[in-house]
Amino acid sequence: MDTGPHNDALGDNEESTSRYKSIIEAVQDGVFVVNLDGTITYVNDSLCSLVGHNPNELVGETFDTLVESELVQSEEFSRFVTAIDNLADGEIQDQILTFELNQETEQMVDVRVSQHIRDDGTEDIVGVVRDVTEREQRARAAEQKQEVLAKLYQVGAENALTFEEKAERILSIGCEYLDLPFGFLTRVDEGEQEIVHAVGDHKLLQPDESAPLEQSYCRKTIESDDLVGMQDARAELGDDDPAYELFELGCYIGTKVMVGETLYGTFCFAAPHDRDREFTAGEREVVKLLGQWAGYELERQRFEERLEGLHEISQQLLAAETTTDIANITIEEVMDLFGLSVSAFWKYDASQDVLRPVAETDDAVRIVGEAPTFERGDALLWESFDSGEIRHYEDLTEQPGAYNPETPLRSEVHVPCGNHGIITSSATEPHAFDEIDIESLQLLEALVTEAITAVKREEQLAERGEALQRQNDRLEEFADVVAHDLRNPMTGAVGFLEIARKTNEPQHFERVEQSLDRMEELIDELLMIARGDRQAINIRTLSLQPAVEEAWSYTDAPEATLSVDDPLGEIQADETRLLQLFGNLFRNSVEHGSDEVTVEVGPLADEEGFYVADDGPGFSDKQRTEIEALGDTDEMTGFGIGLMSVIDVVEAHGWDLLVPAADQGARIEIRTGERSE
Predict the structure, then answer these.
(1) Cα radius of gyration (the chain)
(2) Do both 339 and 427 map to the same domain?
(3) Residue 209 and which of 203, 274, 330, 360 are 20 to 30 A apart at CA?
């Protein structure tokens, strides 16, 4: 029997099989073979390492062995059996399953099973097992990260929640994500760390608790340019580190919280024990995002508080009545609501072309003294005022043109308020003002400028109203003057007309005509005054006696008596205005005296001029002084229209009027000589 070729083929197959086994044994993935009834016929060393069994414990057995050893959960095994059955039935060609191989170690594997038909037609199931624990952990971490970000978004989007409520929820989300019990938000100021919000039961990590920054874990975060994560804080810091001695935190992760460009504090998580693993890149990224969220929320909250404060200020500014009121309100609220304790308000004085201080805070006075008045060009303040733009000086020591090069102030903001004035806010440290401060002051400027404009508009309207009222009063008084001064010649005209009708004598008609002429002349004079112009008086040499008698004839007082002390002499005067003077003095005596009053006219003994006296009630000392002062005021009230008309005639002629004391009645002296000073 010729068996040579057959033996050669068998040898080749054995050699090929041996070579395949060598390759399979060398690969990192686990490999197994099971027949269609589920019996394991082959496993490589990598698979044995994965499942923790020897080949002898698996070959000839089924994978139930792994379930019995609790290496694989029954649910996972059921999925595997279903896949094998589907392959055996020809329903599928291959399938990949992912499941947890070891619950304690959370080891994850991919199992790829496929049907294999040997050369002799025998069917087997070949499986390739690959450890995908790291891949699944990364996927799980990414999923958890997305869940955290989704929760963060949901919390941030709830406008009904306060920042305190949001912060507590975010800290809780972070603690759950990192599996750490303590979460806290701190504020760092002047070397002190204060806990603002916190979750967890650490007694030193509670709201309002504080500690020196040098004794805190957060000092590491602030000193670092990046987030700080310590898996084993004791090992990294040392037992004698002041932060570890005080807080005894085994692990810590924290990031800076920035409000704008200003450091606010830190956002941190910690535990009393060390961590069994390092903080992953995903965990570090989430903590950074939480810190950024805190900074954004704090910035938004601060800006909203500023807006609310500006609304309150606007209400007060609307009620202000003067620019000084506005300045005081502005500086007070800038200090209380904005926390800018070194602030002042300068008002522009256009008449002197200076910036004059109107209001300033106590801290401003304490640090730099009382604010000076700035002449044009004296200080940087003028440059800002003239520019009309808000200017921010981050370090005054580096700024040429400062008013006082030795000033303790380092940074400053200038806020011009139109052409009304300028607000300043200062600080003793450089770079003290952030974007929110600048924006708040910019909004404040608009309110203050509008308030001052409104106040000035009201003042102008009030002034116009007062001027209009004064004008109306003067018109009313002028009407009274017209009626009063025309009454005398009109009374005369009426009286002479009655006599003329009875007697039909020409001289009485002439007196009517004379009275009407006087009225026409008075009307012309008064119209000139009403138009803001005064007709030049017509000075002539007149005899006083006829003028006195004519003026008395216009007086409707039949029981009154006129006494003239001869000789009265002559006078340089406008006849119509002179009659107006005497007519008003006579009428004043009649109206303020009795029906039988006696009026006396005579020359002055020691000066050029004349007097008019009566035996009526007279004037008090106060009234005499006020009458003499009537020529220095535009007011026409107080002593009657008649006396104002007298003053007007006296002033028109350049005479002087005196009211000397009298034992009885009233006496008015008109001095017609050179006017006394």
Answers:
(1) 55
(2) yes
(3) 274
Average pLDDT of span 450-479 = 75
Q: Is the pLDDT at 91 greater than 50, yes or no?
A: yes
In CATH, what number is assigned to the domain containing residue 301? 3.30.450.40
97 in the same domain as 32: yes
Contacts of 13 (CB under 8 A, 6+ apart): none
We report the CATH number of the domain holding residue 59 as: 3.30.450.20
Residue 254: partners with Cβ closer than 8 Å, 6 or more residues away: 217, 218, 220, 221, 227, 228, 266, 267, 268, 269, 287
Last residue of a domain, one of 433, 458, 473: 433
One-letter-per-residue 3-state SS of 261-289: CEEEEEEEEEECCCCCCCCCHHHHHHHHH
Asked whether residue 580 is assigned to any structural domain, the reply reads yes
Residue 6: its pLDDT value, please?
Answer: 41
| Backbone phi and psi for residue 184, each to the nearest 5 degrees, phi listed first | -155, 145
The count of structural domains within the chain is: 4
Domain match, 625 and 659 both: yes
Which residue is it, tokens 């070949």?
Answer: 126
Over residues 565-575, the pLDDT tens digits come to 878 889 999 98
- At residue 35 the predicted structure's pLDDT band, cuts being 50, 70 and 90, is confident
Split at pLDDT 50, 70, 90, the class of 471 is: low
Q: Is residue 670's pLDDT more than 90?
A: yes
449 belongs to a structural domain: no
Stronger pLDDT, 97 or 539, i.e. the higher one: 539
- Tell me, what DSSP letter sits at residue 408? S
Residue 296: DSSP 8-state: H
**Which amino acid would we find at residue 440?**
S
Reported as a pLDDT band with limits 50, 70 and 90, residue 100 is: confident
CA dist 542 and 15 (Å) reads 164
Q: Is the pLDDT of residue 675 over 80?
A: no
- Are 87 and 114 spatial neighbours (Cβ–Cβ below 8 Å)? yes
Contact 266, 221 (CB under 8 A): yes
Do 271 and 156 fall into the same domain? yes
| Euclidean distance between CA atoms 426 and 277, whole angstroms | 49
- Alpha-carbon distance of 107 to 95, in angstroms, equals 20
CB atoms within 10 A of CB 99: 15
Alpha carbon distance 102, 99 (integer Å): 9
Tell me: do 239 and 174 sit in the same domain: yes
Which candidate, 546, 560, 323, places its Cα nearest to that of 455?
323
